[in-house]
Write a structure and sequence with these properties.
By secondary structure, the chain is α+β, with helices and mostly antiparallel strands. It has one domain: Alpha-Beta Plaits (2-Layer Sandwich), CATH 3.30.70. The chain has four helices and three strands. The chain has a three-stranded mixed β-sheet, with helices on both faces. A hairpin with a 4-residue loop joins β1 and β2. The N and C termini lie far apart (about 30 Å). Bound molecules: flavin mononucleotide (FMN). The site of flavin mononucleotide has 16 residues, from α1, β2 and α2. Flavin mononucleotide (FMN) binds next to α1, β2 and α2.
């Protein structure tokens, strides 16, 4: 993936928040400078529609679905989309994502989020447990 500049990341975040709010999608987007890990929560048809737009986005390649299925409740109910940007910048583009990590109670999702950070060499978010 081509590196996105801070303004480009900001624009991406705005797009996500705007669109997701309209269709009641919540989630989080992590970014480590070269990869993204995103979580989308919402009605299956809304998630599918957003995901097909994301898949077609030429700003990234190699999009993979790591997990898909019903959930009992949202893990990021208060968030349209948060972004944890590169390295040890809790501020990032949308540093407000950090507190929302504390709401993650789903074990599988928690592991995915944690692995992404550790793989990036930046275990900067204090996830529960
Ligand atoms: C890593 C990544 C994650 C994205 N996540 C979302 C998202 O959650 N919701 C969304 O509406 N668009 C997301 N987008 C942007 C979409 O791919 C698309 O550009 C945007 O929805 C605007 O689509 P439109 O030009 O068809 O209106 C993401 C893009 C990237 C590169």
């Amino acid at each position: 993936m081509a590196r996105l500049s801070a303004p480009e990341l900001g624009r991406l975040l705005e797009q996500c928040r705007f669109h997701n709010q309209q269709v009641n999608i919540t989630g989080v987007l992590l970014h480590d400078g070269s990869r993204f890990l995103g979580v989308l929560e919402g009605a299956p048809e809304a998630v599918a529609a957003v995901f097909s737009r994301i898949e077609a986005d030429c700003r990234h390649t190699g999009v993979q679905v790591l997990a898909d299925g019903p959930i009992s409740h949202r893990q990021f109910a208060c968030w349209t989309m948060g972004l944890v940007d590169d390295v040890s910048q809790p501020g990032g583009v949308g540093g407000e994502a950090i507190p929302c990590m504390h709401t993650v109670t789903d074990a599988g999702l928690w592991l995915l989020l944690r692995e992404f950070q550790v793989g990036a060499g930046h275990p900067l978010l204090s996830l529960p447990g």
